[in-house]
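Re: weekly structure request thread

Next one in the queue (281 aa):
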Amino acid sequence: MDQLGALLRYEFVQNAYAAGFVIALVCGVVSRFVVARDMSFGVHALAELGFTGAAAFVLVGLSPVLGLLTGSSVTALFIGALGARASGRDTVVGVTMAFGLGLGVLFITLYPRYATEAFAILFGTITGVSRGDLALMVGIAIVTLVALALIYRPLSFATVDPEVAEARGVPVAALGIVFLLVMAAAVAEAVQVVGVLLILTLMITPGAAAERLTPRPGRAIAWSVGIALLCTLGGITLALVTNVPVSVFVTALSFASYLVARFAVGPRLRSDVRPSATAGA
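Done, posted below.
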């Protein structure tokens, strides 16, 4: 504890905790919808093509974080335009991801020096977040959460029953594209903690665990945010005191949270809900 207290005096540690909080908040909220809409493969594509954008921006001397956001956003628009229907979305995602990864390799090959900034995005660099990076992340988080709040009700309806929602006049295809853009922003933030290769940890596991704890959407989002905060801030803390990469602990805590939710706490909570629901009926 003394070691952690001493480290907290450093600006880079304060930035890491602040960034971790912002990232966990955004990912926790978005993760619930990612799981409910069965878009795990889409998260993977957005992250990997975000890396392609980062590599392209590094090649021309621009910020890799902005490149990451640009790459994932362009990919979101492309997937949304070509694969609005769930039945064809995975095919579009697979084709797009393969092409994008090829471009990423090309950009890295063309870079005359060792692309440290681009490669760092593969594994996450939360302890390297600056004040400027943090301000950018807060701005992205605010826009993301506001956008999600504006579409929350129709998106929830379209997630539960897209056919009925479309029949009622809900713009299901447009909502899908907007949510893909929200996912792109969340991916751009989460990558800075766990990297492209482990993005599924924060974008899927919290929502998957929350789904096991409660069937109610509002409570599921609260659980998802709580789990994301525990895994992210806990991972940063353990990394600081052990000098092991943050992503190792974030992934381990996420996996443990899912196991507890699936096999221990979740079944017990659901069994408590069933009798009360029967009595109310």
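The two ends are 52 Å apart (CA to CA). Confidence is low (pLDDT under 50) at residues 275-281.
Next request, please.
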